[in-house]
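Below is how a single chain appears once it has passed through the pipeline. First comes the sequence as given, then the structure the pipeline wrote out for it. We keep one example in the README because the format questions we get most often are answered faster by looking than by reading.
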Amino acid sequence: MNEEKMNLLWHPKSDQKNKGRSFIKMHGLENHFAIFDARQEPFVPEKNEIMRICDSKLGIGVDQVIIIENSSSHADAFMRIINVDGFEAEACGNATRCIAWLLMKEFNRKKIKIETLAGILKCYLLDDDWVKCEMGRITVKPENIPLSMNINTLQPEIEIGPLKDGVITNIGNPHITFFVDQIDAIDIEKWAPVIQEDKLFPKQVNVGIAEILDSENIRLKVFERGAGLTAACGTGACVAVYAAYKKGLTSNKKINVLMSAGKMIIELQAEQKVSMSGPVKYLYSGLWDNTE
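Resulting structure:
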């Protein structure tokens, strides 16, 4: 990325002629983001503006809006993640990789720390467009997911249509992952909304279905809160590998997770921590005009 394009994001002074706010559009495995820098000039869009930004006809056409703010901790920046429905998400693996790539380009470094609502994440540049992020610790404690009742999250008694024997986890955001024999035989867009509305999940839940291909490869689809079926989900990939390992479906701690948009590499570490590696793609920069 050349210096002019970088300056368009990192110095988002309002353009008096066009009355716009600068942004960069990126995607991580077809998970698209409109990224705004609020470190020098605050940006607090309301719900209706978020929805317009995400709209493919009226706005930029993205899955989530990402706002970069100054960190209040010992990190290089704070990343705010807002879904298309206007509600804030705690974590997003694909967005983390994109923001890490931008910050490492800005600071000319190969390592960066990003603060999120889920904690501080360490990220590394592995190649020109390949980023590794330490995604933190996975928990299965009901009070940390959160759940409305105390249940065994590794063997919850949940059966919705063809989906059963799921594993409930939290990696900054809540997930339930089901393992199936043939992933394409499951209509996730039919069954996931039913699960998300279950009273067990007071803050809803991301729903994943996974198919074990072999000891090193898993296929995955994820229906996300506030976004629906996505081409790839970083946090979903992390918890799917963790769930497969805990259920004894694989003994490997380093797994390729294959989604419709491509591959991520997930590696389980000590103390239920996990890292995620995957590609990012810069698309273009521009000015967002909020006038209707």
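The chain has a mean pLDDT of 91.

See the next section for the split statistics.
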